[in-house]
Structures are given as structure tokens and as C-alpha cells.
Specification:
The protein is 8% helix and 48% strand. By secondary structure, it is mainly beta. The strands form 7 sheets. It has a 4-stranded antiparallel β-sheet with strand order 1-28-27-26, with no helix packed on it.
Length: 364
């Protein structure tokens, strides 16, 4: 039943009552307005404290794991990776392998047994976490001095691709893990003037299909790369400033990117593999550090320079909530991978040394 129909029925019933008056009409309208006001944004479910430094990256591991408790990995500006037990809200393990240099990307492989961490020490560490261990078993050296996070894609059992900034400032290197064999180096055309890659997203349209890479660059462009050909397929200038973060929905062939501007850009990929702007959404304040689409492709979250987390419906980019808790820039957002939708969480890490955990379950 629509709001207008409900209002009409209420007014008809009220005016036909013996005690109807103008005051009654006013009271009815007032209480209807109160009843239909939007609910305020929620408070965090809980807050994790104790990083002792700005938080730059987050990664959940909750689905089908032993022991039976969800955990969250965080990487901070002090060079530490912390493993949080989300039942006790405390740190179980602290990993120190980046010489005090900021950690700005973490990702698990083989469940919780192994972890990759990327730091400003120009090194990617492979950690062995099985059976309570916490030691670096391998590493990859990088010459890049930027803040571009790596991207990981599982190709088969015990086989992954990892995309990372290459030695030359405008190039991207793709390796196969665990062999560290070079797959390709993605080089812009002469004179392209893209600047450095700022964010990367590996994806493939289906199991066994050719892998692709979406990359955001310093000049504000998003580029689609074919890895098997090592070739640029499409380039879209969707920002006036460097692309700080992007995510891509391979099922809908649609992605989103943010920059230091006030604009979120939503773009799509047509059947000819051409990128085109789908729509834009203007924010009140400028600066997006991170953007991520939830695994069910219903909502997305952004991390803002204005200390806020914004939630949108992914289908139409309808603003759903502004989560106002942090007291400094929010650097990263991550959705949990719980099997049960009702248990899914959102984590946000901030320059204020805190990690806020939110419950945003929505069946629609």
C-alpha cells in the first residue's frame, strides 16, 4: 500500500468521525510525519582499538573456517598486521615483517593458512599462519614507491594471479603464484601520459575464461587490460583527479571509482569491451579513499576524507546511509564474507587508529 493511499484512508476515516476538527487533522498529519520519518543511521556494532597507528587496509576471513570464529586482518601505518578475533574483539596475533613501514594491502590464500601483506618497504610478504605459526616464508620485491594496492585472483586450486605496480612508474606487472612466474607487463602506449597506476582489480567473466584487469591511473583514467594479450582494450577518462579506488561487478559488467573529487563515477562495459560512463553521483564533500561492492552486489560502501562512510544501493546508486563515527580520514572499508547474510558486517579503518564494525544486513 502506498503512502498516498494510506494517507487518504486515514483522512477519510478521521473526517467522517463525530469529533472531527481542524486540530484533529493537524494531529493526524503530525503523527503520520513522525511515523514515516527515516530511521537514523545505526551505531557501530563494536569498535576495535589498539592498532596504535592509522589503519590502511582490512580483510575478513569468516566463511567455513576452523576454528569456528570470524577474524579480521588489519594493516597499519606502523608496519604491523594484526589478526583480530571478532568474538572477543581482541588481537590474537601481531605480525611484524615490514620494518615499521606502512602496510596497505592484506589478502588471505588457502583459507587462513597463508596471508599476503604489502608494505611501503617495497615488499610483499607471504606469511605461514597454519597451526599457530606466524612467520614469513617468501617475499616479492617491488621498486614502486606509490600507494597502489595489489590485486589477487584465484585461477585454480593452488594457483593465483597477482597484479602489482611494476618497476617503471606507469606499468603494471602480473605474476603467477606461488611460482612467481611473470605472466605479462602491461605498458601504456607511447605518449599516453597516464601517470602511475593508483588502484587495480583483477577479474574474469567466468571460470576458465581469460583474465582481465581494471586499473585506475593518476590522470583520472580507468583502463581495461586483456592479460592474455597484454593489451589495452578500452580507456575511459572518468575523473579529473587521480583514481584513488575502484571496484568492478563482473556479473553486471559495471564498476565504480572514486578520486579526490566530489564525484563517484559509475561505468559499464559493453559487449564490444568498451568502457563508458553509466552515471555519476556527486557527494557533499570531496575525497574517496576506498570503495567496495558487497559480495551479494546489493550495496556498496565508500571511505571518505570527511571522516564518513557512505552506503549506496548498487543497482541505482541510491544513497542509503551516512555513517558518522570516526574523527579522522577513513582509509579503507571491507565487507565480511560470512555465509549467512544476516551475519555480514562492514569494517572501516581510520587515521584515528580505530576500526568500526557495522551490521548492515538488508534482505532486499
Amino acid at each position: 500500500m502506498t503512502k498516498q493511499l494510506v494517507e487518504r484512508k486515514m483522512m477519510t476515516a478521521l473526517m467522517s468521525s463525530p469529533g472531527f476538527s481542524v486540530c484533529s487533522l493537524f494531529e493526524c498529519s503530525y503523527f503520520w510525519m513522525i511515523a514515516t520519518m527515516a530511521l537514523p543511521p545505526p551505531d557501530p556494532e563494536f569498535v576495535l582499538r589498539g592498532t596504535a597507528a592509522p589503519v590502511h587496509t582490512l580483510h575478513f576471513s569468516c566463511r567455513g573456517q576452523e576454528p569456528e570464529f570470524p577474524i579480521l586482518f588489519s594493516g597499519s601505518a606502523n608496519g604491523l598486521v594484526q589478526i583480530w578475533n571478532l568474538k572477543t574483539h581482541r588481537v590474537d596475533t601481531t605480525l611484524d615483517g615490514h620494518g615499521g613501514k606502512s602496510v596497505y594491502w592484506v589478502e588471505t590464500i588457502r583459507g587462513r593458512d597463508e596471508l599476503l601483506s604489502q608494505g611501503r618497504d617495497q615488499k610483499i610478504c607471504l606469511w605461514d599462519l597454519a597451526e599457530g605459526r606466524s612467520m614469513v616464508t617468501d617475499s616479492i620485491s617491488m621498486d614502486s614507491v606509490g600507494f597502489c594496492r595489489c590485486s589477487l585472483l584465484k585461477m585454480a586450486q593452488d594457483r593465483w594471479l597477482i597484479a602489482m605496480p611494476a618497476n617503471d612508474p606507469d606499468e603494471v606487472q602480473v605474476l603467477e603464484l606461488p611460482s612467481k612466474t611473470s605472466v605479462c607487463t602491461l605498458k601504456p602506449e607511447a605518449g599516453a601520459k597516464l601517470g602511475m597506476p593508483m588502484c587495480l582489480k583483477l577479474w574474469q567473466p567466468g571460470f576458465g575464461a581469460c583474465p582481465f584487469l581494471m586499473a585506475g591511473y593518476e590522470d583520472g583514467s580507468v583502463i581495461l587490460w586483456n592479460l592474455s594479450m597484454g593489451k589495452m582494450l578500452s580507456r575511459l577518462a572518468c575523473h579529473q583527479e587521480p583514481v584513488m579506488s575502484l571496484d568492478f561487478d563482473s556479473e553486471k559488467a559495471k564498476g565504480v571509482s572514486g578520486s579526490s573529487e566530489k564525484v563517484l563515477s559509475v561505468w559499464s562495459l559493453d559487449e564490444q569491451q568498451n568502457l563508458k560512463v553509466h552515471k555519476t553521483h556527486e557527494l557533499i564533500n570531496s575525497g574517496i579513499s576506498d570503495v567496495t561492492i558487497r559480495q551479494d552486489r546489493k550495496i556498496l560502501a565508500t571511505a571518505g576524507w570527511d571522516y564518513r562512510i557512505r552506503i549506496f544501493g548498487w543497482k541505482k546508486m541510491k544513497p542509503l546511509a551516512v555513517l558518522d563515527f570516526h574523527t579522522a580520514t577513513v582509509h579503507c572499508v571491507s565487507f565480511s564474507d560470512h555465509s549467512s547474510p544476516s551475519e555480514r558486517l562492514l569494517a572501516a579503518g581510520s587515521k584515528d587508529h580505530r576500526i568500526s564494525i557495522w551490521s548492515l544486513y538488508n534482505q532486499t
